Amino acid sequence: MQNIPRIIGQYDRHREGPLLVVTAGVHGNEPAGIYALERIFKNLYKDAPMLHGKIIGLSGNRQGLKKGVRYIDEDLNRIWTLANLATQKADSSEKKEMFHILRILQQNLTARYPRHYFIDCHTTSSESAPYLSAQDQNENLSWAQQFPLHIVRGFSDLIQGGLDAYETRMGMTGFVCEAGQHQSKASIENLEGMIWLALHQVCGLPFEDLEHFPKAVHNIEKKRTSRKIFEILYCHHITPADHFKMKPGYQNFQKIEKDEHLASQNGKPIYSRWDAYLFMPLYQQQGNEGFFIIQETSA
Ligand SMILES: [Zn+2]
């Protein structure tokens, strides 16, 4: 991707209402959200639908996106800590991005908008059903439940220095959307569908005002009946010294049974202690977690 602007687009009709901030490409190897935002703004500018409040779409790791890498110096989704923000030191490529994004957020997070919402768009290295990862704070979960995708609650709470944690701390309501595999066309469509739904749901955008009802909304709505809400039951931590190998073929949200052989570590088998679901099985070289176990919960 070449020279992506920080502000992918912004749109309002000068009517009172909430602010919706959509960030994309916070990981530079995850351009799907950028494409989704480009489609959204193209249609908004063309059809000029009614809207309460405003939507602004921001790019994340612009240098990373240019090179197609997750990050240049450090992970832009792990540095939004109080300590880093207090130092004001832009001493890495990602901290430069962070302080630039911060300036634009601060210009927009004003009392002019009675409510502030966010969606942070991501994708995953392996194939996965799309899902929302919401911190168990503010109204994040109840808002996430308005959408047709699986929800994994509490996962974002385990991560230090995430952008969504910062936005939540600022009193915003929102979540991370993991839309599918990095290169998959479905990931772009899932994100597009999510953003349209958010515009409809919080900014009152009438779909009738668009020349064509968005196909992405139609497709994502099909997932509503099978939508599940999960909570984290267990995290299998590993260290660089561990020789960890997941059994091949597992997918995100795959159902597992008690005593199932999941992985091996330092030559010993790891068996499931749960009738539950597998989450984020590690098939890459690096990682601090071999897998997570999640279980269904009502809300
Ligand atoms: Zn990501």
Structure characterization notes:
This protein is α/β, with parallel strands linked by helices. The chain folds into two domains: 220 residues, Aminopeptidase; 65 residues, OB fold (Dihydrolipoamide Acetyltransferase, E2P). It is built from eight helices and 14 strands. The strands form two sheets. An eleven-stranded mixed β-sheet has the order 1-3-2-4-7-5-6-8-14-13-10, sandwiched between helices. Strands 9-11-12 form a three-stranded antiparallel β-sheet, with no helix packed on it. The mean pLDDT is 95. The site of zinc ion has 3 residues, from loops.
Physical arrangement of strands within the biggest beta sheet:
1-3-2-4-7-5-6-8-14-13-10
Number of helical elements: 8
DSSP helix fraction: 25-40%
For the sheet with most strands, the description reads: 11 strands, mixed
Whole-number count of domains: 2
Q: Give the ligands present.
A: zinc ion
- Strand elements, count: 14
Structural class: alpha/beta
Tertiary shape: globular
Overall pLDDT confidence: 95
Order of helices and strands: EEHEHHHEEHEHEHHEEEEEEE
- Computed over alpha carbons, the radius of gyration is 19 Å
CATH architecture of the largest domain: 3-Layer(aba) Sandwich
The CATH superfamily of the largest domain turns out to be Zn peptidases
